[in-house]
Amino acid sequence: MGAFMTTTDFGGELISFKLDGIEKIHQGEEVRDDKGKVYWKRHAPVLFPIVRKLKRNQTIISGRTYEILQHGFARDMEFEPVTKLDHFHSYVLKSNKYTMARYPYDFELYNTYRQEENKLIFIYKVINMGMTNMPFGLGSHPAFKIDPDDLKIGNYYLEFEQEEKSVHFLYLIDGLIGTEYAKNILINNKIILLNNHTFDNDAIIIKGIQNKVISLKNKRTKKTILTMDFTGWPYLGIWSKEGAPFICLEPWMSTADRINSSNIFVKKPDMIMLAPGEEFENKFSVEFFN
Predict the structure, then answer these.
(1) Gyration radius from the chain CA atoms
(2) Residue 43, in any domain of the structure
(3) Which of 30, 267, 287, 33 is nearest to 135 (CA)?
(4) Counting C-beta atoms within 10 Å of the first and last residue's C-beta, which end of the chain has fewer, N or C?
(5) End-to-end CA distance of the chain
């Protein structure tokens, strides 16, 4: 079984993973609809120092208001390559004048990708290089190729490895988290059916998952497309666009602001807090099948 990954300095992003020559990652700007419009220009960006959206795209840090756009700035910045071997690619983004104007902390963010046969491991590490405590959010946003016709017909579904009886689905209002939960769409506590209307109200966001292994499957072919193990990540985001040939499965440490947010960054739920010199590392893996 031959597998090959490609990454880029821009965003320190994974842009391709081929298994026996078959592409598994959404190809961004190369993929267009019937009118020539790009569905989504990205592949598998890192989300830092926030996940999803801030209220009014603003937050208050040490009494000063900063603007941070959805999913943060890291995905749109040039990373420095650290290591690039056949099966191990690592990049770093270091704080600079641009980042400090949006997020006033000294940091190093490492994106690392390790390939083990048909498995791809995403590893993220954040180091507080400053002299004060540093709060941040972190997430990943990989997009996996699917057949849009199979999605339209409803042949794809997601299945948790075990029954999930304690999950909650978050309700989005203009990209922010509402005060009430959304409808639980799990079938038999395990399955989420996917079709063109699954994301009519934006992404699906799930918290409270106990066994963090989920598979993407196809009813027509009776095959498993991939299996993700996101142990250690409290949220899972699921997203696509109508008619698009991809599905995003997104492990997150945090999520969007609540609609009643105070806008104070340190009071944002689920922030990771690092003391000076401390580091945080987390990973998840995706096993692909043909």
Answers:
(1) 19
(2) no
(3) 267
(4) N
(5) 10
Q: In DSSP terms, which residues pair with 192 in a beta bridge?
A: 158
Alpha carbons 140 and 249: distance in angstroms, whole number: 9
Say what the pTM is. Answer: 0.96
What count of Cα atoms within 13 Å lies in the side-chain half-sphere of residue 228? Answer: 25
CA nearest to 200, candidates 167, 168, 239: 239
What is the span of the domain harbouring residue 120?
Answer: 3-32+48-288
**Token pair belonging to 155:** 């042949």
The number of CA neighbours under 13 Å toward the Cβ of 16 is 14
Other beta carbons within 10 Å of 205 = 23
Query: 142-171 as b/e, with b when 16 or more CB fall inside 10 Å?
Result: bbbbbebebbeeebbbbbbeeebeebebbb
Q: What is the CATH number of the domain that holds 182?
A: 2.70.98.10
Structural domains counted in the chain: 1
In tens digits, the chain (290 residues) has pLDDT values of 689 999 999 999 999 999 999 999 999 999 999 899 999 999 999 999 999 999 999 999 999 999 999 999 999 999 999 999 999 999 999 999 999 999 999 999 999 999 999 999 999 999 999 999 999 999 999 999 999 999 999 999 999 999 999 999 999 999 999 999 999 999 999 999 999 889 988 999 999 999 999 999 999 999 999 999 999 999 999 999 988 999 999 999 999 999 999 999 999 999 999 999 999 999 999 999 99
Cα separation, 151 vs 129, whole angstroms: 45
Q: How far, in Å, CA of 202 to CA of 174, rounded? A: 9
